[in-house]
Amino acid sequence: MIFSLFRKDPRRATIAALYRRIADASRNPGLYGTLGIPDTVEGRFESVSLHTILVLRALRDLPPPADDVAKDLTDAFFQDIDASLREMGIGDTVVPKRMKKLAAAFYGRAHAYDGPLDAVDEPALATALGRNAVGSDAPAHPLARYALAADRSLKAAGLAALLGEGHVFPEPDTFGA
Questions:
Q1: How many whole angstroms separate alpha carbon 144 and alpha carbon 120?
Q2: How far from 148 is each of 11, 70, 124, 142, 164, CA to CA, in Å?
Q3: DSSP string covering the chain
Q4: Which Pfam families match (predicted)?
Q5: Residue 47: what pLDDT?
Q6: Which residues make Cβ contacts (< 8 Å) with residue 136, sequence separation at least 6?
Q7: Domain residue spans in the chain?
Q8: Rounded to an integer, what distance in angstroms lies between the CA atom of residue 126 and that of residue 119?
Q9: 20 to 30 Å CA-CA from 73: which of 6, 9, 21, 157?
C-alpha cells in the first residue's frame, strides 16, 4: 500500500509535460520583442493564458479522453498560477482573492478570444489581444495572426500529437509587422 505513493502517475506526467510545453511556448522571446506582449508579470500571465486557451480550444473539439485532459490542464494552469503568487511572496490569506480575480480574467479572455478565433476574424481578435495581452487601445495584428495560426495548427493535430512528442507553436518572429 505505501509503495503506491511512490509510483509515477502516467496521466499526471503527461499533463505536466503538456503544460511545460505550453509554458515554454509562452516564454518565447519573440512574443515579447516582436509581437508586443509586455515583458512583465502581467504580460507573462497574458502569454501563458493565451497559449493555454489555444490548447483548451483544440481539446474541446477532440473525442474523449480530451475533455479529461482539458480539465487536468486547467488544474495544472491554476496550480502554476497559485505557486507563482506564493513565490512572489503573496500571503496565504491574499492568494485566494488574487486567484479568484485571475480566474475571472482567464475565463473572460477565453470568452473574448473564442468568437474571433471561431470566425477567423483577425481585426476583432487583434482588438481583444491589444486590449488584454498588449495593454493598448491599438489592435495587436501580429499577435492576432500568431494566435490564428496556432489555433489552426493545434486544431489540426490530434490528441496523440498534443500529448505525445508535443505540438510546437509557430515561431512568433515570423508574424512581426
A1: 10
A2: 29, 20, 12, 10, 23
A3: -GGGGGS--HHHHHHHHHHHHHHHHHT-HHHHHTS---SSHHHHHHHHHHHHHHHHHHHHTSPTTHHHHHHHHHHHHHHHHHHHHHHTT--TTTHHHHHHHHHHHHHHHHHHHHHHHHHT-HHHHHHHHIIIII-SSS--HHHHHHHHHHHHHHHHS-HHHHHTT-PPPPPGGGG--
A4: Ubiq_cyt_C_chap
A5: 98
A6: 36, 130
A7: 10-166
A8: 13
A9: 6
- Model confidence, pTM: 0.92
Three-state helix/strand/coil letters over 61-101: CCCCCHHHHHHHHHHHHHHHHHHHHHHCCCCCCCHHHHHHH
pLDDT of residue 7: 55
* Alpha-carbon gap, residue 69 to 63, rounded angstroms: 11
pLDDT along the chain (177 residues), means of 10: 58 92 96 97 97 97 94 97 90 89 97 98 98 96 98 92 82 88
* Beta carbons within 8 Å of 65's beta carbon, 6+ residues apart: 159
The C-alpha atoms of residue 7 and residue 116 are separated, in whole angstroms, by 43
Q: Which of 156, 174, 137, 151 is nearest to 50 (CA)?
A: 151
What pLDDT, on the 0 to 100 scale, is given for residue 120?
Answer: 98
